[in-house]
Design goal:
Layout (H helix, E strand, L loop, with lengths): L1 H15 L3 H15 L8 H16 L3 H18 L10
Helix pairs in contact: 1-2, 2-3, 3-4
């Protein structure tokens, strides 16, 4: 769990500093770390996906952003929620 917290904290710092490459790398690390825990995949995973989508949008990577949003939609369907309203950073 500490690995998840560290990756998210680092990602947030880089995201706020607009260091998109480092933020993207840390969000990816956070996603890999959170996948180790079956009980945390829902809200946390969706929130990390939103943060990644934000970076992709800011970098002009619209095709990758759309693919990520499609994955996000797939995650939200079984969860039965209206979706995550906020991203972590």
């Amino acid at each position: 769990m500490e690995e998840v917290r560290l990756a998210i904290t680092r990602a947030k710092v880089f995201h706020i500093k607009r260091d998109w490459e480092s933020a993207f790398q840390c969000w990816t690390e956070a996603m890999q770390a959170v996948n180790q825990f079956t009980l945390t995949k829902g809200h946390t995973t969706r929130t990390i996906f939103l943060s990644i989508c934000d970076i992709l949008r800011r970098q002009g990577q619209h095709e990758l952003e759309l693919k990520s949003r499609d994955q996000l939609t797939t995650l939200e369907k079984p969860a039965g929620t209206g979706g995550s309203l906020y991203w972590i950073a």
